[in-house]
From TrEMBL:
Source superkingdom: Bacteria
Pfam families in UniProt: Zincin_2
InterPro entries found in the cross-reference section: Zinicin_2, Zinicin_2_N
Organism of origin: Actinotalea ferrariae CF5-4
Protein name per its UniProtKB record: Uncharacterized protein
Length: 150
């Protein structure tokens, strides 16, 4: 089977991945994160929340999205900040990809998913690898127009 030419890629119906399963499997594959006392971990979580709040204006400026946010009337809407462990990040990333890619729509509008376990396992491996390397991200498909996950 040859690769799909770039001009035909829009015709490809979708990715055959069970994103929920990929997120769950990745959560089992990822190495555990740093450990500490409960007080230390609570302090780290507070620091991450503060960093997420400080990062928003920097991200808006760097992405040049300020005018678009103003037009949409969302310039003052803060994203929900979630601080999660590595398995939690993997599950959230799987859900984000599911919202981005979606299922396969049939002629009657119903959504069907083709879920070969090979593609799901490969995706789980990738999410498991990334879960230990991503400190924070913004999920535009999260509730209320976005979620910061870190």
């Amino acid at each position: 089977m040859s690769p799909t030419p770039a001009h035909d890629r829009a015709a490809v119906p979708g990715l055959d991945v069970d994103w929920d399963a990929a997120g769950r499997w990745a959560g089992r594959l990822v190495a555990p994160g740093p450990t500490g006392s409960r007080d230390e971990l609570l302090h780290v979580v507070d620091d991450l929340r503060d960093a997420a709040e400080r990062a928003r204006p920097l991200a808006v400026r760097a992405s040049r999205l300020g005018p678009s946010l103003t037009l949409a009337g969302t310039q003052d809407v803060a994203a929900q900040v979630l601080v999660v462990d590595r398995p939690g990040w993997a599950r959230a990333a799987g859900q984000s990809f599911a919202a981005l890619v979606g299922g396969l729509a049939s002629d009657d509008g119903a959504t069907h998913r083709l879920v070969p376990s090979g593609a799901t396992a490969q995706t789980a491996s990738l999410l498991g690898l990334l879960a230990g390397r991503v400190l924070g991200q913004f999920d535009p498909f999260g509730p209320d127009g976005g979620t910061a996950v870190g």
